[in-house]
Design a protein that fits this description.
Layout (H helix, E strand, L loop, with lengths): L4 E3 L2 E5 L2 E7 L2 E4 L5 E6 L5 E8 L2 E6 L7 H31 L11 H27 L10 H6 L1 H22 L5 H23 L8
Antiparallel strand pairs: 1-2, 2-3, 3-4, 4-5, 5-6, 6-7
Length: about 210
Amino acid sequence: MNITGYDKGLIWTNTQSKWVEIEPLLFQHAEGEARMAFREDGGGAVTHMFLDLQQMPIAYERLAWYDTPGFLWISSCFIGFVFLSSCIIWPIMHRIRRNRKEAADDRQPSRIPRLLAISTVTLNLIYIAGFTLSMFLLIDELVYGVPPVITALLVIPIVTTVLTVALLLFTLPVWKYKYWSLIERLHYSLVVLTCIAFVIWLHNWNLLGFQY
């Protein structure tokens, strides 16, 4: 719902379409019989728009900021960037520790959160790549139901959600006992926050579990 102007009984939806207000929240096209109506919430904010074009009713709902295409694109890129950065940063830091012969960092218990983080990020990347590829290749099959491959992929977010909880629980000892270097601890915390954000992102788009 993109309203660019509302002044003196006229509403402009774009540079070529003009609507005249005939009743509160009800408009008629200035050059035809098409009508447009709006619905407000208790606070007076417009939440829905309804169009009647040649007896073909169409309803629109105002999107929340976190449901807009722009935020979807930015959040997806950020999550993917953090996950992919782990595939670069962790091997580099592991090589640096080996060169410095910091063998203690590769022993328990500091090894557990690192392995959990690697497993979580790897599974999330497999899910993102697999789901994206499946949506392109199996788009026609979705008309008749959910393909088995997508059903199998939906198991991954359930597993990574459990792993994310474990990662969050390890955040305190990671900082309390100063596992690894400061950069690694900061990056670990960023990965944990990103995994949490990814769980929320999946839930918001009904991709967490088998919601179909």
